[in-house]
Amino acid sequence: MGISSEEAIKQLRTLMEDVDESLRESYRNIHQGYPTETLLRFLKARDWNVQKAHKMLLECLEWRTQNEIDKILTKPIVPVDLYRAIRESQLVGISGYSKEGLPVIAIGVGLSTYDKASVHYYVQSHIQMNEFRDRVVLPSATKKQGRPICTCLKILDMSGLKLSALSQIKLMTAITTIDDLNYPEKTETYYIVNVPYIFSACWKTIKPLLQERTKKKIQVLKGCGKDELLKIMDYESLPHFCRREGSGSGRHISNGTVDNCFSLDHSFHQELYNYVKQQALVKGSSAPIRHGSVHVRFPEPDTEGTKIFDTLESEFQKLGNDQKV
Which stretches make up the CRAL-TRIO domain (predicted)? Predict the structure, then answer.
């Protein structure tokens, strides 16, 4: 019989009391004053096995230290034209908050091209958004709600998904692995909208490979998902691609960049980019901001992740062959 969740948290907390001094700053940046919720996330990610959760958390802290993740919010991507190009090809943003106060993260899976910069720039940008979410957005939401807000909702827009996405599998594997191993259990629910045939065909093969707790988090919604999403958030928090049927996740919409949370001109990205530039000035004193991407070591994907992406790659190739026939 397994131990209770309270006992597992207690055991893991005791193990973490002996964490090396060099890792303590990273640990503080991870838990942001809520260590119990953090321990809970790592325990969930390792099915309540205390020793495996402890190993995972220590490896996460070591990865952060070795790659200077705690300093990544002091390293803006410059010049701004390069960052704008990244924002236009890596479609991610925060559109608002759910009725329970959770940040709503929108991701334009189908129309992200990842073709305006090197892999390292896209990974740097992704990690910066993760860190800004964890160090700024979630603490702010916690303060506003008067209770710990440690997770978010994600809405994945599949509009425009094509077989050419196969070329992005390696980058997506790296980003997903970084999230799985170093930012586990940060997403409460994944809502998938604007689903084309290519996704439906792949989903039937991928779904059986997912762990049960992951399956429970994923909801594939009809059309743009507006009716279902309005049950958990106000209209103002809906991503632009969910506001009307057939709108898609186009980069240009009727209200320009005001409502498009993917755009650098959106309030979320303006706040993020200005924050990183400000932190660079504070931490770097009078030294000029250095050009060039941050090189982060990509962790090896776990067995489940490898199997999923190999299967996805295989399915895309099959669909491509079927189209040729």
Answer: 79-239
- Residue located via tokens 């990183």: 276
Looking at residue 230, which CATH number applies to its domain? 3.40.525.10
**Domain co-membership, 108 together with 231:** yes
- CATH number for the domain spanning 20: value is 1.10.8
Cross-strand bridge partners of residue 152 = 187
Within a domain: 251:
no
**Token couple for 240:** 């632009």
- Show the DSSP H helices in 192-293 as ranges: 197-206, 212-215, 226-229, 267-284
97 and 48: one domain? no
Residue 310 lies in a domain: no
Final residue of a structural domain among 224, 246, 268: 246
Fill in the DSSP letter of residue 299.
P
- Taking each helix axis from N to C end, the angle separating 169-182 and 303-324, rounded to the nearest 10 degrees, works out to 160
Render each residue's pLDDT in the chain as its tens digit; 325 residues: 467 899 999 999 999 999 999 999 999 999 999 999 999 999 999 999 999 999 999 999 999 999 999 999 999 999 999 999 999 999 999 999 999 999 999 999 999 999 999 999 999 999 999 999 999 999 999 999 999 999 999 999 999 988 776 678 888 888 999 999 999 999 999 999 999 888 887 888 888 878 888 889 999 999 999 999 999 999 999 999 998 754 444 444 444 556 899 999 999 999 999 999 999 998 764 455 556 678 787 777 665 656 666 666 666 566 555 555 4
Residue 109 CA to residue 96 CA, distance in Å, equals: 19
Tell which of 17, 39, 65 closes a domain. Answer: 65
- Residue span of the structural domain in which 9 resides: 5-65
Question: Do residue 242 and residue 142 come from a single domain?
Answer: yes
Contacts of 263 (CB under 8 A, 6+ apart): 87, 88, 93, 251, 257, 269
Q: Are residues 61 and 88 in the same domain?
A: no
Among candidates 28, 110, 37, 33, which has minimal Cα distance to 70?
28
